[in-house]
Specification:
By secondary structure, the chain is α+β, with helices and mostly antiparallel strands. It has a domain of 125 residues. The chain contains three helices and seven strands. It has a five-stranded mixed beta sheet with strand order 2-3-4-5-6, covered by helices on one side. Strands 1-7 form a two-stranded antiparallel ribbon. A hairpin with a 3-residue loop joins strand 3 and strand 4.
Length: 181
């Protein structure tokens, strides 16, 4: 696998009284490695700029702006689909973070993480980009066709035939129109 870019900051070296500003903007080789990891056709631009600031005595907050231009394969035709992304990014790193003990837990705040020894803003950028990508990109004019299957000698079912309440409306109209005598 290609080497993914990294921009780590040791937590013990972060200032505890003022924010530390950063900008992560990988070179072409770094963007190509990220594009390969995320299944993108191209990643012409990626930038995460923001700050890591102290929050309380031993916690930190990362706030940044993610901007990117991506090219994804169309979910129908596999043709290239360009997109622009601009997303705010926020992570809170808590030293005394405890996961709930239950088997299944719904986290109210998915931006809170345990405080690591190193905060790698490149990892944060890749994760934020992965979450911001369009799920089903479509090229202009790409549409799903209607598949019709039937055994030989039978009429295929269409979407209209599978609507059970459509026939009830017609029956109701007949009964109301002819039942007044």
């Amino acid at each position: 696998m290609t080497d993914l870019p990294s921009q780590p900051y040791r937590v013990t070296a972060l200032p505890t009284r003022k924010p530390m500003r950063f900008t992560f903007a990988p070179d072409a080789a770094g963007r190509a490695a990220i594009a390969a990891e995320l299944g993108l056709l191209d990643l012409p631009e990626l930038r995460l700029a923001g700050e890591i600031r102290p929050a309380g005595k031993s916690d930190f907050t990362l706030e940044a702006a993610l901007t990117a231009r991506v090219v994804q394969p169309c979910s129908i035709t596999l043709a290239p689909v360009p997109a622009s992304i601009a997303e705010p990014v926020r992570r809170t790193y808590v030293r005394d973070y405890r996961l709930p003990d239950a088997d299944e837990v719904e986290l109210e705040d998915d931006t809170t993480d345990p405080l690591p020894e190193v905060i790698d803003v490149a990892d944060v950028a890749r994760e934020a980009l992965a979450l911001a990508l369009p799920l089903y990109p479509r090229a202009p004019g790409a549409e799903l066709g209607q598949a019709v299957f039937a055994e030989p000698g039978t009429a295929p079912l269409k979407d209209e035939d599978l609507r059970p309440f459509a026939g009830l409306a017609g029956l109701k109209a007949k009964l109301e129109g002819g039942g007044g005598a």
